[in-house]
Every structure is written in C-alpha cells, then in structure tokens.
C-alpha cells in the first residue's frame, strides 16, 4: 500500500511541474542563442541570460565571458554556414549584419531569427533593455539595470559640470574596420561616438572626406584634432602609440600626433549605449582632460 501511495505522489509531482511552473519563465526554456550584435550580447549577459549564448560575432567582446564563446564571423562579414552549424534555437541581431545574403540563407535553413533595435542613444538603449527583459522573461532585472543606468548617466553629467572645463579639445575617433581591413574615421557622423565625446566635454573634429570611410591622410591632417581616440583593435594592431602616429595616414601631421595625444579606448565602450555608458563617459572624460601620454587601461 505504501509503495502505491509513493508512486502516486511521484506521478502527481511529475505532472504538476509543467502545470504549475514559474509563470515568468513559462515558454522561455533554456535556449541555444547565437547573438550577432555586440550591444545585444552585453545586454543579455547583464540580464543573466549569457549562459544561453553559444556563439557571437567577433565584435562581441564584452563581458570577458563573451570572448570565450565560439565566433561566427565579424557582424558585417558573417558566415551563414558557421551560424547554422551551431544548431541554435534562436539567432538575434539588430539589422546591421552582413553580407546581404547571410540573413536569407539562415532563414531558408529554418533558423528562428529575431531582430531587436539599436542602442544609439541612452533612451533607445533603455527601451531595448526593457524589450529584451520582456522577451526573455527578465523584466525585473531589466528595470533594475535601467535604474542603475539613469544614476550613472546623471553622475557623468555632474562630473563634467564639476570639472569646470575651460578649453574644449577637438577629438577624432579612428577605428580599424575588420570587415574591410582598413582604418577609417568613425567620428563626425552624428552617431554614438560623437554623443560620447560631447558628453565627456570634447568637441568632434570636422572630417571632410566622402562617407568618412577609408582614411584620407590629407583630410586627417587638415582636420588637425587635438586628441585622437584609437579603438582597441586598431591601436593594438600597430603595437604602440609611436607606430600608430607614424604608420596611420595623416596622424603624424596633427596636433594629436605631434603632442602624442593618442588614447586607446575599447570599441564596445564607444559605439553603443548600454548599462555601463555613464562609467564609460566618465573614463573618457578623464582621458580627454588629463595630461598628455595618459592612456586607457
């Protein structure tokens, strides 16, 4: 009799697990996610969903845990075969992936693909965090991150005001594009780097070159920035500040080159807004207004 009762109770518990499961996670099973946008990668980790990501694009380098994941190509030069080989339950991106045939290929292969928005402003980043929180069943965590982000952005604004800056340096961002294997000027497009520079008390240098794509030595020299921000991969590719100054076209002819005002900055801290943007702006602020030869860690 006791054995019959025990079997019956076990069966009841087994079937009730699905019937009375956690409402917040119902329908949001553990998934195999391939993430193709760097800001989505950071946000998913912040939401506690990083353990579901099985592969990322090469530009997804934050947090450090993302660097341990398999990669499926640069976000504008992806491999459809590599994505499909990961057998993901979900592929997420933010409509900035390439080449053009990759999306039709992975869709035709039957993969579940979901597009989310960008994070080109602090407000759009907060809206995206909210959307991700709802989609992945982490609304409370998203709200907590947004509240912390509001506080850090206000702290950055207060820090800039307290610095009482008298001279505003002209700033240019030079980035190495791994998709095209070229250096190009990233600032001057009224995009995220420009917003970050302004928030840190800098002035964006006017760069007069069509499309601001492949770098022009003449245009860099004519723009003559006081400070050049070099994103991490392009800076490290040269190996030192001296090599960056001498080997990147036009840099040696600028105030930044002559005065050795080249600062290394992580790409993922500069080209989208997210949970750490307030702290990133404060870091940039100190770099722009510090004495020469001080670089980011």
UniProtKB/TrEMBL annotation:
Coiled coil: none annotated. It comes from the Bacteria. Residues 32-292 form the Fe/B12 periplasmic-binding domain. Pfam families: Peripla_BP_2 (PF01497). This is Iron complex transport system substrate-binding protein.
């Amino acid at each position: 009799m006791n054995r019959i009762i025990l079997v019956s109770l076990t069966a009841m518990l087994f079937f009730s697990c699905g019937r009375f499961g956690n409402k917040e996670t119902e329908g949001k099973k553990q998934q195999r996610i391939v993430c193709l946008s760097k800001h989505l990668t950071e946000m998913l980790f912040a939401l506690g969903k990083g353990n579901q990501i099985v592969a990322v694009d090469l530009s997804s380098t934050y947090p450090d845990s993302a660097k341990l994941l398999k990669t499926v190509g640069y976000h504008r030069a992806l491999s459809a075969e590599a994505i499909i080989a990961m057998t993901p339950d979900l592929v997420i991106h933010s409509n900035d992936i390439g080449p053009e045939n990759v999306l039709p290929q992975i869709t035709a292969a039957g993969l579940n693909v979901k597009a989310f928005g960008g994070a080109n402003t602090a407000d759009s980043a907060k809206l995206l965090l909210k959307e991700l929180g709802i989609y992945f069943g982490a609304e409370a965590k998203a709200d907590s991150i947004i509240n912390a982000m509001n506080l850090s952005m206000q702290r950055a604004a207060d820090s800039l005001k307290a610095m009482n800056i008298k001279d505003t340096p002209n700033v240019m961002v030079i980035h190495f594009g791994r998709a095209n294997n070229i250096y190009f000027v990233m600032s001057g497009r009224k995009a995220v780097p420009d917003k970050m520079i302004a928030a840190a008390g800098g002035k964006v240098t006017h760069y007069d070159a069509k499309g601001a794509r492949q770098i022009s030595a003449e245009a860099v020299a004519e723009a003559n920035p006081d400070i050049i921000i070099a994103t991490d991969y392009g800076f490290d590719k040269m190996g030192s500040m001296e090599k960056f100054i001498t080997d990147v076209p036009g840099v040696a002819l600028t105030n930044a080159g002559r005065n050795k005002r080249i600062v290394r900055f992580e790409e993922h801290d500069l080209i989208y807004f997210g949970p750490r943007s307030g702290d990133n702006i404060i870091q940039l602020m100190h770099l722009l207004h510090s004495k020469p030869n001080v670089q980011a860690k």
